[in-house]
Specification:
The chain is an alpha/beta fold and 263 residues long. Helices cover 17% and strands 27% of the residues. It contains four helices and 28 strands. It has helices at 195-201, 205-220, 225-235, 239-250; strands at 3-4, 9-10, 15-16, 21-22, 27-28, 33-34, 39-40, 45-46, 49-52, 57-58, 63-66, 79-82, 87-88, 93-95, 104-107, 112-113, 118-119, 124-125, 130-131, 136-137, 142-143, 148-149, 154-155, 160-161, 166-167, 172-173, 181-185, 188-193. Helix 2 packs antiparallel against helix 3 and helix 3 (225-235) runs antiparallel to helix 4.
Length: 263
């Protein structure tokens, strides 16, 4: 059963699932697909070609599926796909993709996007990601599963953020953040491993120890990072260490390691 407030505008062509609630003064575009069990609260906008999975919640005055803030965008068809059970709080903005970035912005399942977050065009967000208040994620950024982005942070375009990583609040990240790592600061630098996140999500203590040893070898041993990562990739059987090593080897923007200054 649907519950659509009489002041809401739902354009012809929009596909609305079962048990969907649409509050006062909402706008749903003709290209929207709203999955079963979604709740769209007062003043929220679902624009363009946007798909919401099942049981999503859009809070007051959030705008999803708006056109990119990109001067190269010329009106080409693009879309936004949001997975199941994702919550997007008040005054967030998420843009569709662009032709140059593949045409799709994606947010995964079970994500929690807090108030006033901006997700730019062609951003790819994995599953179980938390992004805290007032954070700005620029275009083409990729965020891995189970990552956490602290509030008031900014992430430069084209950065990659690995799974189970954490960005401390108030940070400005302009390089790639490897899996399992913690960074903080403006400009953000590596501060160690996200051990709290690993212990919460990874029952295998041996693998956590493997990740610790790999972190020390890659970032603290004095060996060139990519050389150390290649050695680990050749030696290890740990899937987690392999992911870390491959990330370091393949980085395009570099890793934000703070170099020691002599003297």
């Amino acid at each position: 059963m649907q519950s659509i407030h009489p002041t809401a505008i739902v354009e012809n062509g929009a596909k609305i699932g079962k048990n969907v609630t649409i509050g006062p003064y909402c706008y749903i575009s003709s290209g929207a697909i709203i999955g079963d069990g979604c709740t769209i609260m007062q003043g929220a906008v679902v624009d363009g070609k946007t798909t919401l999975g099942q049981n999503c919640k859009l809070f007051y005055h959030t705008v999803v599926g708006s056109i990119p803030q990109d001067l190269k965008y010329k009106g080409e068809e693009a879309e936004l796909i949001i997975g199941n059970n994702t919550t997007i709080r008040e005054f967030c903005q998420i843009n569709v993709g662009t032709q140059g970035g593949g045409g799709v912005t994606k947010v995964g399942n079970n994500c929690f996007i807090m108030a006033q977050v901006h997700l730019g065009h062609d951003v790819i967000v994995g599953d179980n990601v938390i992004i805290a208040n007032n954070t700005a994620i620029a275009g083409h950024v990729e965020i891995g599963n189970n990552a956490f982005v602290g509030g008031m942070s900014g992430v430069h375009q084209f950065c990659k953020i690995g799974e189970y990583s954490m960005i401390g609040g108030g940070s400005a990240l302009s390089q790639d953040l490897p899996p399992y790592c913690l960074c903080e600061g403006n400009r953000a630098h590596l501060r160690g491993l996200n051990l709290v996140g690993l212990r919460r999500n990874l029952d295998n203590k041996e693998e956590i120890e493997n990740i610790k040893k790999a972190y020390k070898k890659i970032f603290l041993s004095g060996i060139a990072m990519q050389d150390a990562a290649q050695e680990l990739l050749n030696e290890t059987k740990s899937i987690y260490v392999k992911k870390l090593a491959k990330f370091v080897i393949n980085t395009k923007r570099g890793i934000p390691v703070k170099r020691k200054v002599n003297g």
